[in-house]
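Below is how a single chain appears once it has passed through the pipeline. First comes the sequence as given, then the structure the pipeline wrote out for it. We keep one example in the README because the format questions we get most often are answered faster by looking than by reading.
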Amino acid sequence: MIVMTNEANYTDTGHTGYEYREITVPGELSSLCMDSYPCFGWEQDPNQEAVRSKGRGWPFVHGKGKKETVTLHFRRKRSLCNKTELTRLQRNFDGCVAELQALERSKTTASAMAALAIGLIGTAFLAGSVFAVTAQPPVIWLTVLLGIPGLIGWIVPCFFYRNILRKRTEEIEPLKERTYDEIDQLCEKGSRLLY
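Resulting structure:
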């Protein structure tokens, strides 16, 4: 979530007008934002501190319950030269950060969905097995026939999840590296406009 407010202090002597920006990013991207935003004319707001909070997350993904988010506060002089171009570069940077977040989410989402689908299929087999044993007269051979794939369908998702996560990570890494390269280029352009 990104919130932007414009605010200025009006005094007769030594006036410096600022615009303010507040961004909330995942904890693993907070250092990237703190290092990159100065390239677009922003500096950390000395009147605010970074706020860390726990977000929502899958309780079974990597043994973590909730992902940490960080709210960062920045300010920038309103009289900054090349402000329009810096703002355009910053929007591109924000798009790159959003792309990194989406890539990270897609990695775990695809793995979790595949594992859940296999688990549901296993549950359907086990339900059929239960119906077969409770039928009058009980059909034991059908119970065993449906119970074995049902149990396999409950055990396999854990291994399947890890395998898909590993493969998806290998697919996503080049895309993430390309995005980080684009971020570097944007920061270099922004730094050249500032100095």
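Residues 44 and 74 are 4 Å apart (CA to CA).

See the next section for the split statistics.
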